Amino acid sequence: MSIFGRSTFSSAGYAAFRPSYPPVLFNRVLAFHNADRGAAPSPSGWLLDLGCGHGLVARALAPSFTKVVALDPSANMVEQARKLTHDPKIEVRQGKAEDLSFLGDGTVDLVVAGQAAHWFDYNRAWPELARVTKRGASLAFWGYKDNVIVGYPQTTAIYNKFVYGEAEPAPGVESMARFWELPGREILRDSYRVVVPPESDWTDVKRIAWDPDRTRGGIDDAPEEALWQRKSLKLGEWEDYLRTFSAFHGWQGAHPGMKSRAVGGTGDIVDLMFDELVAAVPEWKAAGEKWKDIEVDAIWGTVILMAKRR
Domain Methyltransferase type spans what residues (predicted)? Predict the structure, then answer.
């Protein structure tokens, strides 16, 4: 079972601390979807949101559609989505991309997946998606991966050591590396390159990807259309975000004796990571106990995969 589907996973915390999506991303997806469609009335057609999580994407895109079906395999996520969603045109269901039997043939105009497409079994999902989408329908899968803190390159190596390192990041402490759910995480980090819409059913395939920690020239060399996941956040908010990682929850389950300082423990892996991060940046260290209030510019690697139904 995925970490997100376990009863111990906090879907409310996930909703609170995960980055949201900016309007520019939704506008790009809708522009691709509406290209060559003529002056169709708005709202128009059906939207299918796969891996809907707490319903953010479904709610954002709902004004452009007459019906929205939001689907997630996690009962916790479905419950959270229903609590946060009050639009009667949005139906939130528990289910998977591999079984869309509740939908009729050729009913869907746009199928999307935000931060979810790396979990699908495409041997089963592609035939289902081909069946439920109309001719000329659109597909848009997107995701974001590891973030970097702009202007502080020394923090990237520390982050990678604690999150992906094979060696102990601190004496006697295991990194999060073995707790990532694979192959999903690697598929996302590799910009969905193995997610290839079948040519028999899909055309006009477009992939926009950028990874800041693999780009030699930095942000200035990134495609403008790829820079959609960027925000100013406090270091304390970054800390909270890291604790939404599925790998962190896996690590936490394997090391129950290492509690965070926030709950009275001596420190978990995120506490130890931030000890080193703060020590590495003089101005953060000089802030003392107020380091959590320092604002930084964070930018994530991104990928968008789009295609049209033949």
Answer: 48-141
